[in-house]
Amino acid sequence: MPRLNTLASIWLVVTIASYGQTTRNGDGEAYNLTESEYLSLEGGSLLPFPDLTAKVEKDVAEIRSKFPEIRNITHNRKWIPGQVLSTRIRQEQIEKLNTSSYGPLTKVEKIDVKPFFVITVMSFNKPYSPPVLCQKLEGEFGFPCTSNIVYYEYEVDNIAYRMSNSTYVFKKGTGMCKENCEDRLLWEFLVDENGSPSLVQEWVVPQNGERVVIA
Ligand SMILES: *[C@@H]1O[C@H](CO)[C@@H](O)[C@H](O)[C@H]1NC(C)=O
Ligand SMILES: *[C@@H]1O[C@H](CO)[C@@H](O)[C@H](O)[C@H]1NC(C)=O
Ligand SMILES: *[C@@H]1O[C@H](CO)[C@@H](O)[C@H](O)[C@H]1NC(C)=O
Ligand SMILES: *[C@@H]1O[C@H](CO)[C@@H](O)[C@H](O)[C@H]1NC(C)=O
Questions:
Q1: Could you tell me how far CA 139 lies from the centroid of its own chain?
Q2: N or C: at which end does the chain have fewer Cβ atoms within 10 angstroms?
Q3: Which ligand lies nearest the alpha carbon of 28?
Q4: Which atom in ligand 4 lies closest to the alpha carbon of residue 190?
Q5: How many angstroms separate the CA atoms of 47 and 130, rounded?
Q6: Per-domain residue ranges of the chain
């Protein structure tokens, strides 16, 4: 969370959670994206462009087909697309943003966290990646900006994509357990130019937190 201090971050999390802004099911939100659209955004793209989304969909299908042990691992989204938060944005900046190439804004909601600050929740008419958008907005408009992060009650399975080197990390989460949990298992795959996946490494993070490379 760039430029938000620790206190602000904690309050942001508590407040957003208590206002139900971040829920597992994302009540009342605007976009229902596919797994490959989410992965494209999380991999570093501003929008889920069709070419990229098609590549990701094909890559993930190839990985699942070649490596059956990770076939059942699914993606769980990190944040709500097309939505950003700011604790320090002025009305004129909102108006400028609304009429900019990123706009229009479909909804602007203010949450007053007395006596700390006001959180402005801004929704856009496109399913932007919040971290990629925030970096642009901070540079071009000068207000601090953060993603609307989704919190999970327990450690979920996940898939992460990195556009920069065409790698995918599949993670088997520890699930709902509180004691005697299973270890986290992770696999990193590289998909080459021909669309062929290979296992780069496989590792386990046991409950004591120390990483052990398996392969
Ligand atoms: C997205 O899915 C949720 C839950 O199924 C639904 O309530 C909502 O109306 C959907 N939104 C859109 C824009 O399709
Ligand atoms: C994946 O799920 C299917 C259906 O629930 C199950 O039969 C299969 O054993 C699972 N595979 C792995 C590797 O967990
Ligand atoms: C954004 O601009 C449109 C068109 O000018 C306007 O109708 C809308 O009220 C504006 N929204 C905000 C949040 O300023
Ligand atoms: C891909 O990039 C990430 C982040 O820079 C790095 O941690 C990872 O080792 C890279 N993987 C490969 C196979 O190059």
A1: 20
A2: C
A3: 1
A4: 13
A5: 10
A6: 6-32+78-149, 55-76+152-213
Best mutation site among 71, 170, 172 for ligand 2 pocket (most ligand atoms within 8 Å of CB) = 71
Domain 6-32+78-149 is found in CATH 3.30.70 = yes
CA 102–ligand 2 middle distance (angstroms):
43
pTM of the model: 0.83
128 pLDDT tier (thresholds 50, 70, 90): very high
Q: Could you identify the residue written with the tokens 């957003």?
A: 16
Separation of CA 140 and ligand 3 centre (Å): 19
DSSP 198-210: EEEEEEEE-TT--
Mean pLDDT of the 156-161 span: 94
Tokens, residue 127: 């399913």
Secondary structure (DSSP) of 91-153: HHHHHHHHTSTT--EEEEEEEEETTTEEEEEEEESS---HHHHHHHHHHHH----EEEEPP-S
Altogether, the residues listed in the chain come to a count of 215
